[in-house]
Write a structure and sequence with these properties.
The chain is of the alpha+beta class. The protein is 47% helix and 20% strand. The protein has helices at 12-17, 19-27, 54-63, 70-84; strands at residues 7-11, 31-36, 39-44. It has a three-stranded mixed β-sheet with strand order 1-2-3. It is elongated, with a radius of gyration of 16 Å.
Length: 85
Amino acid sequence: MIEGMAILHMSQADVVKHFVAVLAKVRQGSEVVIEQGNCPIAIIKPSKAADRMISEVIADLNARGSDATMRTLRVTLGKASKRNA
């Protein structure tokens, strides 16, 4: 199912079935290409280093078309922390 590191190709059914193992491989640096038949539909890959400043994260989100601001992130993070409490 999941072997070694690097780029792994998996069906979406296998990703759903082994999601915890997939995330463990991603944490170790592997990329997972999710395929439907022989067609890639998504890629799961490690995020950039977490040591970025929040202003850099917002600038990156804005460059990708998001309208994120410090205020919207606080609201989003506040809702997430209440759900996890």
